[in-house]
Design brief:
The structure holds two protein chains of two kinds. By secondary structure, chain A is an alpha+beta fold. Chain A folds into two domains: 90 residues, Penicillin-binding protein 2a (Domain 2) (Alpha-Beta Complex), CATH 3.90.1310; 320 residues, DD-peptidase/beta-lactamase superfamily (Beta-lactamase, 3-Layer(aba) Sandwich). Chain A contains 17 helices and 22 strands. Chain A has a six-stranded mixed β-sheet with strand order 3-2-1-6-17-18, with no helix packed on it. Chain A has a five-stranded antiparallel β-sheet with strand order 8-7-22-21-20. The longest helix of chain A is centred in the first third of the chain and has 28 residues. Chain B is mostly helical. In chain B, 70% of the residues lie in helices and 5% in strands. Chain B is globular, with a radius of gyration of 22 Å. The chains are: A alpha+beta, B mainly alpha.
């Protein structure tokens, strides 16, 4: 009987081999697929158990932190609430939801480990602790933006033009990221600064000027006829108050925001060149900000139906009106801040970013975000010439209310009529600018949409001046 | 080294395992090493040494590895159960003590285990009655559509299949010892297959009927497979005829196919096995939730596992298990989650070593009854491991049987200690030097 006993043991070894093979399937071969299976609740539960890192402002104020919750999990609280709700966003792991930096900086905050450290982490049985994310966001200036908007709908974006660091990003309406599911009349999770498309009005003339100068077709002293009205694309175009200026320099045309001159300049520069420069400024692309791409939109001409992007080379686009910020051009406040920052930084556009460094729980810097160049939009010489033109706007033109004591400010106003209410035009009031002119530290874009008779110089410029003043006072 | 000293040394891994395991769980729980872990280690070392001394006195020639291997499994199981539920672990420890007493009792009472043969029909009758008890109204305990336990109100729930498996193996060993010769001699060739005479094959057919009845009445695929597998294994060992096994397999396959398509509970289990991620089956009561989460748990373990006490067992903040029955049916998935593929293979290897020692005893045994008894007990234990681990790893449809010595459960611990006692008795007699 010994022979069949031996063979029976062989059968048992075979059966056990099957068990080992199948265990190997689930633990090794199909492990990734099983962990990503949508029915697998462990993935989310494990993530809830991670002590996510904090998000901090440039003065080390805590904007987001983890607090222990039941069953060894953590939830997030946001000490500054609505002030930084749009920039910081929120994270509800159990729902698989997130927004803002909480989403885009997720891998830093979770402290995803690789290689050896994870093996040792397992042996030690320690809970996974995330890294702290330090940002360039400035609470004082952000608070100033809130007071300046004073409850009105609007957006303020401020950048360091030399590094691309985002100092201020605030929009009304906002929400409290401690309670992201709340709804109400003045509550919105929609970030107007990055997701809102608005007619830019005359602030877009900064882009047209850049194309005009850098393409070599115009200089600041080129003379163009500023009479009103002229016919553009078969339709009469008027200056503000239908004022005829006669022959004027390009500088004067920018200073007093003369529409008829800029429509001609744009048409003269041509569709292809305008398109080239717009793309260099970042139009027609989702902004390169370290922010969730689905919470940003590309700026550019968009169709009324469907909102698809239309390129200037498309002959259906009214080039003349686009050049003065009309047509169907829709831009985000972030994009216009990038335009101001480009001129300020001698024609070099820096990639905008909120994260400055990532520090682990031992205090070691894991990652430093170095300033990176998005592109040289125009030559430094032409950018400096345009800076001079924009300085005239603030000193003697439409933007005088952006003047600051002791600091030279360059800028451009925008007033885009978008509707009418009881015979009074509703305008997007814009101001984009930067300071100090000789060594720009702050570039800013301010928008107040749909203000009755909302001249940019009157409504937006003072806000921009206060933001600039606040940031410069902090030594920015 | 002397045989019994080897056994004593073999207990060291068990003691170390239980101490290190408890220490691991404690460190994870409270970030501090409590002296309780050492106490647990000492108590279990003490119990195992007591068991060892008892064997030293009563069975001086028995296989030195069987007892330490069982102790390793039991201690390991205790750590895992403690990690899952502290109260269950305390009860399991009590069952462990009772199990050792029953172990000693079995050795004393059946010192000459061959007298079991005299009672074979009593034993088989008791086993069959035990098997049917879960279906008795008022006693039966239905769990997820299967009748697995007997519930005596206010006293306890016990699983008769655990005891019946030992009884049936004893009966088969005795019966096949008597009939193996005539089954082979009287066999006729039919359609190229060797068919044994019906007269002697009758009781074997009875076991086939029992296996089918377990399926039909108890809806218990696991036990059915285990019993029937053990029957075929013993039939093969007794007659050395592969054709008997083939006929048996075909008969079982036909019966299982018919019942699998006609009994809803069994059909559900098969469907869950085939489509664990079908969302309809996943959300259905008694559907594929358990097997799917078993696979998720194993996937989380990976090669090395997450570490003792690190697996996610419940939904945070609640007491609802993400993996139902983690300390009984699903304990292998928890082991894999926490100790990874390596830990799981180590457990399987321990079982394989135990079975190998059981077979070794069978080979060394001098009489047919002893051989069949040792081989049958080893086979049924191996098949039980295959049925539950195979179910948890989705080799076969999942059904509830315990992982011997490791799973939480009094019946399982007690019955397996009886099984261990019988193996040691066979082994002691086999290895005893012939008296001059």
């Amino acid at each position: 009987m010994n022979a069949p006993i031996g063979r029976m043991f062989g059968v048992i070894i075979l059966l056990f081999t099957l068990l080992v093979v199948w265990t190997t399937r689930w633990t090794v071969i199909d492990s990734k697929a099983l962990q990503n299976n949508s029915l697998n609740a462990r993935t989310l539960i494990d993530e809830e158990k991670i002590d996510r890192g904090r998000i901090l402002a440039d003065n080390n104020e805590v904007l987001a932190k983890s607090v222990p919750a039941r069953g060894g999990t953590f939830t997030r609280t946001y000490p500054t609430g609505s002030l930084f709700a749009q920039a910081v966003g929120y994270s509800i792991v159990s729902e698989g939801e997130g927004a803002g930096l909480e989403l885009s900086a997720g891998s830093y905050l979770r402290g995803v480990q690789t290689g050896l450290s994870s093996v040792f982490g397992q042996l030690g049985g320690s809970t996974q602790v995330g890294d702290d994310v330090y940002t360039s966001l400035d609470p004082t200036a952000q608070q100033e933006a809130v007071s300046q908007l004073d409850g009105r709908v609007g957006s303020v974006v401020a950048l360091d033009p030399q590094t691309g660091a985002v100092k201020v990003m605030y929009s009304n309406p906002t929400y409290n990221d401690n309670d992201p599911s709340a709804s109400g009349t003045n509550i919105s999770r929609f970030n107007n600064a990055t997701q809102g498309g608005y007619a830019p009005g005359s602030t877009f003339k900064v882009v047209t000027t850049a194309a005009a100068l850098d393409s070599g077709k115009f200089t600041p002293n080129s003379i163009i006829n500023g009479n009103s009205p002229i016919t553009v694309s078969g339709v009469p175009l008027e200056n503000d108050g239908n004022q005829s200026w006669g022959p004027v320099t390009l500088t004067k045309a920018l200073t007093y925001s003369i529409n008829t001159v800029y429509a001609q300049v744009g048409q003269d520069v041509g569709r292809a060149t305008m398109q080239t420069y717009m793309k260099r400024f970042g139009f027609y692309s989702t902004p390169p900000l370290d922010y969730p791409p689905n919470e940003m939109i590309a700026s550019g001409v968009r169709t009324h139906a469907g909102g698809a992007l239309l390129y200037p080379t498309n002959t259906g686009v009214d080039l003349g009106r686009m050049s003065i910020g009309q047509e169907r051009l829709l831009v985000t406040p972030l994009q216009m801040a990038m335009v101001a920052a480009t001129i300020a930084n001698h024609g070099k556009l820096m990639v905008p970013h909120m994260i400055s460094k990532v520090v682990n729980q031992d205090g070691a810097v894991v990652d430093t975000i170095k300033p990176t160049v998005y592109g040289q939009v125009m030559s430094a010489a032409n950018a400096n010439a345009e800076t001079q033109m924009m300085t005239d706007v603030v000193e003697e033109g439409t933007g005088t209310s952006a003047n600051l004591e002791g600091v030279k400010v360059a800028g451009k106003t925008g007033t885009a009529t978008v509707g009418e209410s009881g015979g009074v035009p509703l305008d997007n009031a814009w101001f984009i600018g930067f300071a100090p002119v000789n060594n720009p530290k702050v570039a800013v874009a301010v928008l107040l949409p749909s203000i009755p008779n909302g001249y940019g110089g009157q409504f937006a410029a003072p806000i921009a001046a206060n933001i600039i003043k606040t940031l410069l006072a902090e030594g920015q | 080294m002397r045989v019994r000293n080897r056994e004593l040394l073999g207990l060291l891994p068990a003691a170390l395992l239980v101490t290190a395991g408890f220490a691991g769980v404690f460190i994870q729980r409270s970030n501090q090493l409590s002296s309780v872990s050492l106490t647990y280690g000492l108590i279990f070392l003490g119990l195992c040494v007591a068991g060892h001394i008892f064997i030293r006195i009563t069975l001086p020639y028995a296989d030195p590895y069987l007892f330490p291997l069982a102790a390793v499994l039991a201690c390991f199981g205790l750590v895992m159960i403690y990690r899952i539920s502290t109260t269950d672990a305390r009860q399991q420890a009590q069952w462990f003590v009772l199990g050792l007493l029953l172990f000693a009792g079995t050795i004393v009472v059946f010192r000459d285990y061959r007298k079991l043969e005299q009672y074979r029909y009593v034993i088989v009758s008791i086993s069959l009655v035990l098997l049917l008890l879960p279906r008795v109204p008022g006693l039966g305990d239905e769990v997820n559509g299967a009748y697995l336990g007997v519930h005596i109100p206010g006293v306890f729930v016990f699983q008769p299949t655990e005891f019946a498996k030992v009884g049936l193996v004893v009966f088969l060993a005795s019966y096949l010892r008597d009939t193996r010769q005539v089954m082979v001699m009287g066999a006729r060739r039919f359609l190229g297959l060797t068919i044994p005479p019906i007269k002697h094959f009758g009781p074997v057919l009875v076991i086939w009927a029992v296996a089918m009845a377990i399926l039909l009445l108890l809806h218990d695929i696991g036990s059915s497979l285990m019993f029937y597998g053990a029957l075929l294994a013993m039939l093969y060992i007794a007659t050395n005829r592969v054709s008997f096994v083939l006929v048996g397999l075909v008969a079982f396959a036909i019966g299982a196919w018919y019942l699998g398509t006609h009994i809803p509970h069994i059909h559900d289990r098969v469907e869950a096995w085939e489509h664990p991620f079908n969302s309809h089956l996943y959300n259905k009561v008694g559907g594929s939730f358990q097997i799917a989460n078993s696979m998720f748990a194993q996937a989380a373990g990976g090669l090395f596992g997450q570490g003792f006490g690190e697996a996610t067992l419940t939904i945070p903040g609640t007491h609802s298990y993400l993996l139902p029955a983690p300390d009984t049916d699903m304990i292998y998935a928890v082991i894999t989650d926490e100790l990874g593929l390596f830990g799981a293979c180590a457990v399987l290897l321990t079982y394989l070593l135990f079975v190998a020692r059981g077979f070794k005893a069978a080979i060394l045994a001098r009489d047919s009854f002893s051989k069949l008894l040792a081989a049958g007990l080893s086979s049924i234990l191996a098949l039980q491991v295959f049925v539950i681990v195979g179910g948890v790893t989705r080799v076969i449809p999942l059904t509830g049987v315990t992982l011997p010595f490791v799973s939480y459960g009094g019946s399982s611990i007690l019955a397996n200690f009886v099984l261990l006692a019988l193996l040691l008795l066979v082994s002691d007699r086999a290895r005893r030097p012939a008296r001059a």
